[in-house]
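Moderator note: this is an archived Q&A kept for reference. The question asked for a predicted structure of one protein chain; the sequence and the answer are reproduced below.
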Amino acid sequence: MSRAKGSPSMKNVRLRSRIGAVVSAFAATAALMATATPAHAAEYKVTDNCDVPWITCSEGDLWLLYNSKELAVSGGRYVSSWSSFYGNVSDYYGTSQYQGSTLSTYRYVFNGNGNGSGQYTKNNAASVQNCAPADNYRVYYNSGYGGTSQYFAHNDPYGDCNLTNLISALKNNNASQHFA
C-alpha cells in the first residue's frame, strides 16, 4: 500500500493533534490566570502578641527582655527593650493567617525602649519577667514547645513581677512559650 505524494502520515497527524491540545490548554490557563485575583501579602511588626487581630488575650503577660536582668533595669526604669506575650506562643518569630486573599504575617520584635530595639524576639532574649497574676509559663528552646525549657512562676502576692535570667541553654535561644 503506497501513500499518495503530499498526504500526511499518521505520525504527523497525531503530532499535530498533540500540539493543538497543548496550545489549547496553554491558552485556557493563560486566560484563567489573567482573570484570577492575585494573592497579596502584608507583614507587620508588633511587640505584643495581643496586637495580632486573631489572637484573643486577657490579663497576664510574660515579658521577654533583650538584656539580662542586671542590665535590663536601671534606676527603677527599663533600659532594655522588651516584648510581651499572653498565652501559648508556638513561635516567637511570628504568626501568619490568610484574611481573604491576603496573607497577613505578624513578626514579634522588641519595642523601642532601649537596647535591642526592633530586633526579632526569637533567639534574642536574655531574661524573662512574668507579670501574670495567676499564670505560670515555660519558655522553650525550640518552636512548637520542644527542647530544653525553663519554668517561670506568676507574680508574687504583693504584685511584683518576677524578673529572672534565662538559663544558659535558653539565653538567646528562645523560640516558644506555653502555659505551665
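Archived answer notes: The CA atoms of residues 141 and 148 lie 5 Å apart.
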